[in-house]
Amino acid sequence: MKYYFLSSFFIFIFCANVLAVAPAAPVVIYSIKGQQVNVSWLPVGNSDGYRLHWLPYPMPNPTGPINSIDLGAETQISTILEDGAMLYVAITAYNQAGDSPFSNIEVIAINNEFSGGDTTAFVQSSSAFDNPASNLDSEGVARHLIGDAEFEQNFVTAPAIVNSGLGPAFNNNSCIACHPKDGRGRPPEEGGISNSFFLRISIPGVDPKTGGSLAIPGFGTQLFDRAIFGVQPEAIVETTYTEVNGKFGDDAPYQLRKPIFTIVNPYTALPDTYLTSPRVAPPVFGRGLLEAISDETMLEWADEDDLDNDGISGRANQVWDIVSETTVIGRFGLKANNPSVLVQTAGAYHGDIGITNELFPLESTAGQPQDDVLNDDTELRQGVLDDVVFYIQTLAVPARRNIDDPKVKNGQILFDQAGCTSCHIPTVTTGVLEGVPEVSNQVIHPYTDLLLHDMGEGLADGRPDFLANGQEWKTPALWGIGYTKVVNGHVFFLHDGRARNLTEAILWHGGEAESAKEYFRNLSSNDRESLIKFLESL
Predict the structure, then answer these.
(1) Spatial separation of the C-alpha atoms in residues 233 and 243, rounded to whole Å
(2) CB 3.0-4.6 Å disulfide test: which of 75, 194, 425, 426 passes with 188?
(3) Which residues, including other chains, have CB under 8 Å from residue 257's CB and lie 6 or more apart?
(4) 535 with 482: CB under 8 angstroms?
(5) pLDDT over 50 (residue 10)
(6) What's the CA gap between 38 and 17, in Å, rounded?
(7) Each residue of 40-56: b (16+ CB within 10 Å) or e?
(8) Is the pLDDT of residue 17 over 60?
């Protein structure tokens, strides 16, 4: 495991003989300005010279030798690194008796605050998720704002002059209602409901055409808990929680909450056997950049058979693309069950709101008693889908904060030591997204691999979705996660919102992430706080 190697990197063992003593470790000051890195230290007594040592961040697997260069008697070094470079760096002093221990080790990260590359927005208010990409030209901003206005439109029952066609059965009446301020929805409270929560549903088996989930006859693959006047919703979802007790390695107690979702008052009988999967709406910013990550890059990250023996076996979902009518790589949705922002957005209009459109021209309740049986035109105005897709693709990613905070720096190292970077990949260069040059060829820091991973029984929903089995979930991007409280007024995380903070989110990890969870659980309270501070800086 790479964190064992990193531990040896931290604990440098040096030799000394009875006639001489190796020098003490230097105390190093690191400074970064743009792509310029300056490293300096005070002279160490009894030293003949100094060596610079570095390794890539995150630590590669398999791990290569530590890179070193002899600096002679110099006590500073300055260099230019490429955009997005991330390195572990340390200095040792040496004399005839040997080398000192490593100096204070730091991660040198170039332009790491630019989480979304040139799209990044330096906004720290409650509007942190709701900004046009910073590199849009005036024409692009104008189109982005048109899409923004459409994203916020409320749909109403037909007939109506504008925004007609809500339902007949649905989950919400606008995009912004599920994704408030382009951010994260809330889970339902015990005994309550949530406007940004729904259940995926299906019966066992595979759709012979698409390879996806099989619809429940009379219900489909998404449960509609709301309906227009005079129409009966499909059912209601009741929510309860049970507490799960645990202890950290230092015996400090913690509690997790496990949700139980029960379908009640169905309008007609459900089959004896059916599958459910709860969903809380995730943030929508940065999706154009994620769409621009090439298939080739994702497949390079994949290691379905764990050939490198690191315990991580991510794989790409293969999903049906309704546009090309072929099977392609999935990257959106909590199980990566959507191939593009276009298909996901059209599906959300159709499924979540009940608005027919050019990709989904039939009502979501077609063939059910809730259907309006009108063979009319699609309900979404021509051009709206394209404008909303462009809006989502060109939402800026908020910049990182507090990158010079010592706790944040320590947390960044611990995040890699724990093995979190095996799935939450920090840095990637995007490919080309046709029609959206602003997100193309960008060095970004999303902290995701967009792949499916087995997260263990604790988070399992038991419902397959294309290739994703009942224990697999897509690695979510972590950028912007520290702004959730500021933007959305809560800190509920994971696919169903069960985690009430980032600590609980980590403690729910299992399966391929079990060792990372255990590493975190056994950290000291100060180190646990540092790792959380790092996540909050993203």
Answers:
(1) 31
(2) 194
(3) 241, 242, 243, 244, 498, 500, 504
(4) yes
(5) no
(6) 34
(7) ebeebeebebbbbbebe
(8) no
For 537, the enclosing helix (H) or strand (E) is helix 525-537
369: three-class secondary structure by DSSP: coil
- The pLDDT value recorded for residue 195 is 85
> Which residues have C-beta within 8 Å of that of residue 193, sequence separation ≥ 6?
225, 236, 237, 239
Q: Are 486 and 127 in contact (CB under 8 A)?
A: no
DSSP string, 100-163: PPP---EEEETTTT-TTGGG-B---STTTTS-B-TT--HHHHHHHHHHHHHHTPPPBPSS-SSS
Q: What angle do CA 184, 189, 195 make, to 5 degrees?
A: 50
pLDDT tens digit string along 391-412?
999 999 999 999 999 999 999 9
| Percent residues over pLDDT 70 in the chain | 96
Q: What's the 3-state SS for 217-232? A: CCCECECCCEECCCCC
* DSSP H or E segment with residue 326: strand 326-330
Please report, as a single letter, which amino acid is at residue 27.
Answer: V
Q: Structure tokens of 280?
A: 């809380």
Q: What would the pLDDT profile of 434-450 be if each residue is shown by its tens digit?
A: 999 999 999 999 999 99
ω before 187 within 30° of 0 (cis)?
no
User: CB-based contacts of 103: which residues, under 8 Å, 6+ apart?
Assistant: 25, 26, 27, 28, 41, 90, 91, 92
DSSP state of 185: P
Residue 373's pLDDT band (cuts 50, 70, 90): confident
- Asked whether 418 and 75 are in contact (CB, 8 A), the reply is no
Written as six digits, the tokens of 34 are 């743009």
Rg (CA), the chain: 26
